[in-house]
Amino acid sequence: MSDDATTNQYVINPDAPAESLEAKQPWVDNGVDIVSPDRYYSSEFKSEEWNKLWPKVWLIAGVESDLPELNDYFVFDVGHESIIVSHTKEGIQAHYNVCSHRGNRLVREERGNNKQFTCPFHSWRFSNQGELKFITDRHTFREELVCDNPGLTPVNCVVHAGIIFINMSDNPPDIKEYLGLPEGYLEAYQVHKMKVVRHQRVEWDANWKTGIDAFYETYHLHAVHPETAGVMGDLNVQYDTFENGASRMIVPIGVPTVRARDQDAMNEGLDWMLSTVGIDPATFEGGAQEVRAAIQKAKRKNAAEQGVDYSQLTDGQLTDSWATGVFPNVQMGMHAEAVFLMRFLPHATDPEKFYYDTMTLMHPITDPSHQAPAWMGLPEDTDLSGKTRENMVEIQSDDNEALGIVLAQDSELIPVVQQGIRSRGFKGPIWGEQEQRLRHFHAELDRYLNDEK
Ligand code: FES
Ligand SMILES: [Fe+2]
């Protein structure tokens, strides 16, 4: 492991071949400009984003495994837009959730199985491929108005690595090029075989970017999430930036923070992590520095027993969080057995509100002797078999139990940060190199707003 003191270019595995997904990417110099804080609260900035950002980018609408059956659908809402994503006989398609008659929202349910949708206002009917199938009292319309059977407006939709992306522009870029991630990066995790076992949403009183910023670095862990110190490297993190605003941080898990005075002492968190992979901490002979490797080894063994394929993953990927930012509004905590997909969804009208929408995706576990990894914080009664797909649960921002300890801390923090950002006394964020992903993200955002994209 190495570290460049001036730019904090920490490398998690110096032996990783240059072409490997783990390799440190060349450092990108995004300058030292301080952005104006009005981007976090002004209505004008929000409107600019709606003119120049949201309609142009690929957005993660959901995951393929949520639409296993023909005619399954879900609704994806972002800001004032709502989009129906359907598994049609021609594949997965997306349409604006807007009736072509008078603009009513066609579908109000979050998900279901429907071949046709009937508008609740005057009962016009549409197929899930967007064709207008029926107009109530059609003879009362002048023919020139309805002769072309005005259907639903389609939205570009592609499936990549088991993830469903939509794009509202007329000429969307190629999805792989847009994502900017190395070839095979997302595919390695086999997300298409994972199932959503938990879907939660919480509304926070902050701009969506205040949310992104808080999740794009581990610099705040020692202060806000001190209990992670026993099991997570917060300073020895590999930050990488990619093309088109994408980025990731590799956060080592199963090691105490390098800030800890005693680097070898075991602790409760490490014991717990060992036990979830089937190692009895009482008989574990190593010290804290041996835990990460022991977990990696155990996971390879368990995967083989469960028939899960980890052959495309490095040892590091079996323990570490590869928190991967997909521009503009998603971060995926990529783990061998699960993906924690978080979306930062802008509020329809208020620039100082957003939805933190999270889906926990995992390879189904059918053998009751296998447990979900400790970091996921799933309630004990969670169905890990992937057989049931519960609807999204809206949780209150002060529901600490539902949020879990770490998110409860973020929940308390983020609105308070927003208030400070809003002050006349704040001159704009001073980002260090542990915050290079934030700078990279905002630089890309600015390219959209400056019509460079
Ligand atoms: S608005 Fe949909 S049928 Fe009238
Ligand atoms: Fe946090």
Describe the structure.
With 453 residues, the chain is α+β, with helices and mostly antiparallel strands. It contains ten helices and 18 strands. It has helices at 43-52, 143-146, 175-179, 208-215, 221-224, 268-276, 288-306, 315-319, 400-421, 436-449, and strands at residues 58-63, 72-78, 81-88, 91-96, 111-113, 116-118, 125-127, 132-134, 154-160, 163-167, 195-204, 238-241, 247-251, 321-326, 330-334, 338-346, 354-362, 393-395. Strands 12-13-14-15-16-17-11-18 form an eight-stranded mixed sheet, with helices on one face. It is globular, with a radius of gyration of 23 Å. The two termini are 37 Å apart. The model has no long low-confidence stretch (mean pLDDT 95). FE2/S2 (inorganic) cluster (FES) is lined by residues 99, 101-102, 104, 119, 121-124.
